[in-house]
Every structure is written in structure tokens, then in C-alpha cells.
Amino acid sequence: MRITRNHAGLAAAVAAPLLLMSMPGQAATSVPAAGQAPSTVSAAGTSDPPRMQCLYLVKGVEKVAGIYLGEFAVLRRSGSTVRADIGAFQSEFVTFRGSIAGTSLSGRLYEDTDGDGDLESRARTYTWVPASSRIKGWTRVSRATMIKYGGGGVPVNGGICSAVTLSVASRDGFILVDVDPDKGAGYWNLTLQRRTSGGGWATVGAYRTRGSDETRVLAPSPGTYRVKVAGKYGWRGATSPALTVP
Question: What share of the chain is helix, strand, coil (3-state, %, to 5)?
Fold first, then answer.
């Protein structure tokens, strides 16, 4: 995912450090320009992960008496790292955590096998098909199709791939916004809010992302701001940390 600098005023900002603040659960980091020493910023969380991809797989699906039966897997992939919810329609599911190496997806399955609340794990390896980003023997489907097959029994809404990823950055008076997943130009609706003197938040503008990378450049007056992205089509929204525009 790249941030599109589509404002003429950003040309002079290319050589300046970029303060990144990401949502959800990501740390603020400082990205220095060439030849500059990095500055440090304290924040809770972990480093910004690689671009996330959500995959929906099914296997052996059939419709019996108006109900879909079969297996499903909801995968969240960041680089080679994979987390997944795997199970059967109209039944339970388990969590998988692992990584991709060539044509192998290896990791561990975690489940409460005896109902005592403690998770036990066991090793599991799947054959991975890189060309189509799927497990061998499984079929890729859309998010909407997965919901149709599983109804409320599939961990799609509220699951590991349910929330958008929102990243914002402040540079030389501009706010750069980047939203994942990329769904098409103008797909995500944004709200810019400014912190008031009383400590609350007041909305100062409403926008949409632009371009296939789903980004937007904002130029507010100096102050402390946050960006909210509204949920849409089964994806939960997100709110960025506060950031200061000098």
C-alpha cells in the first residue's frame, strides 16, 4: 500500500520525516528522510505490519434442506504470516496460526478439546497454492458468498478480517490517510475530528478516499485531530489515534 501525495504542497515534504500513527493496535514510528537520523516516538502496540489480505476459502459445500454444509477457512495474511479461523458450516471452528514458505502453509491449530477453557495446540501443515493464494483442494469465494453459506455461524462479521485498517500520518501541515482493504476509488467514508478546548471531539469535515489505493490527503489548520472511517458492507469501522498538525 502506498500513500498517494496528490496535493502540490506535499512536494516540499518529501525530504521531511514522516510520523506514522496506525489503527488498530499499531505503534507510532518515525520514518526519517535520506541522510537523517531517526527520531523516536513512544506508543503502545507493535510495529506496522505488512499489507493485510483477507481470504475466504470453502471445501465440499453442498446444500441440504435449504442449509449449506461443508468446510470454511477465513484467512488473514500479512506477508508470509497467516492467522485463520477454520471449521465447518453450522458447527464450531478453531484458530490456526502459521506462515507460508513456498508451497507450504505450516503452523499450529488451537482449540479447547475438553471444554475446560484451556487451548491445546497441534501442528498442522497445508499445501499452499501461491498462484491463487489458497489451500490446495479449497476454493476461493467472496466475502458475500461466505456469509451466504454460513449465515451467523461463520466468523466473518466480528472475526479476524472484520475491521478496516486505518493509518494516518502528519507531515508539514498535511494529514495523509490510508485505508485497507482496497475496494475501489471513493469506497471509504472518512470523518475528520478536531479536539476541542474541553477535551472532546468536534467534526470539521467529511471526505471519501481516492484512487485504487484508497488514500486521501487533508490540509486542516493547526491543531490536534483524529480520523474516523465508517464501516461498510460488513466491515467494522476504525478510529485513528490523535495526531498533531503544526
Answer: 10, 50, 40
